Amino acid sequence: MTQLELLLPFAMPPGEMARDLLRELKMPSLAMLLARASRSTHQVFDGFSRALPHEYWLTRQFDPDNSPALATSAMRSFNLPAETGVWFILQPVHLHISRDHLVLTDTRQLQLSESDARALFDIVQPLFDEVGKTLVYGDAQTWFMRADDWHTLHTSTSDAACGHNIDIWMPKGPHERDWRRLQNEIQMHWHAHAINEQREASGLKPINSVWLSGGAEAKKTSDTNTKFEEAFTFLNGRNPSAALANKQISITSVADILNAKPQHGLLVLDDLIAPALAGDWSEWLMRFQSMEELWFEPLLKALQNGQLDKLAITISHNTAYSTFAISKSSLRKFWCKPTLARLAS
Predict the structure, then answer these.
(1) pLDDT value at residue 169
(2) Burial of residue 58, with CB atoms counted within 10 A of its CB: 0-12 exposed, 13-18 middle, 19 or more buried
(3) To the nearest whole number, what is the mean pLDDT of the chain?
C-alpha cells in the first residue's frame, strides 16, 4: 500500500469546549501523528451551508448553495439502476416542535427497522405515482425519488439541517411548493398510523416526515466525483458514511486495510458524528478515546515500519475541515512534541 486517507468527521471539538475536551483525551499515537504532520488544506464554510464540511470533502464538491450530488452514486452502492433522469435521496425522518418552529432529529436516533420502513414506503408510494414521480427503496434509512423536472431544487443534507429550524434548510427553487405539497401529503398519511403508534408505545420517535437531498442527473456525474470514485478503494469503519462507496471493503481493523493492499485507500470513521450533533460530549470523548488503540496506534506503527507510505488525516466540525499529511520521514521531526492541539486549530 502507498497511501491512505483517513476522514474523521467532528474530530474537531467546538472552540469554546476544545481545551477542556482535549485535556481528557489520552491519545499519544494520534498526538504524534498530528504534531509531525504538515497541514495541506484548511477550508472554512458558512454556518448555513447546505452540507457539512466532511460531506463536501467526500465528493470534492464545494457548492454551499446545494447538497452534494450523491443520489445516483448512492443508488449504485445499492445496485439500483439509475441510467437516466434526475434522482434525489429521500430519508424517512422525525420532526419535532421547538418553540415556534420545526427541528429535524438526527436520523441515527430513529432505530427504524426494515419491516417498518418497508410498510411506510408502501403507504406513500402511490402518492409519488400520482404526481409522476418514481420512488425506489434502498434500505430503511435511504430511499430514492426520480423527479426530472425538479432538477433546479437546492437541497440540504439531513446532517447539515439536524438540530436546526428546518425552514432555513428546506428545498428552495421553482418547484419548492410542489415538493412541500407532496411532503405534506406524506405527513398526513403517516400521522397517527399504527406503525407510529407502536413506535411511540415502545419509546421510539414517530416517523412523521421525509427529507430530500443529493439531487443528481444520472448521465452527468461531475468529473470530480468520477475521478474520486475511480481513484480510491473505500475502506469503511463500523458505520460507513461514504455514499460514493462503489468499491467498498468492510473492515474492522488496520490489519484488514493492510491485507487489502489498495494503492490509494479511504477510511471513514464517523462514530463521532452522532454525539457531536447531539451535544453529548461525554459520549464523544468515550468514542474518540476508543479509536486510539484500534486505529491510531496501529496506523502509526504501519508508517514507522514502512507498511504504509503516506497517511492523510482530515478532521472536521460543522463549519470547517483541515487535512494533515504524514509520511515516515516526517515522523523524524523529533523537535515536534506530541500534542492534540491541532484538533482545535
Answers:
(1) 92
(2) buried
(3) 87
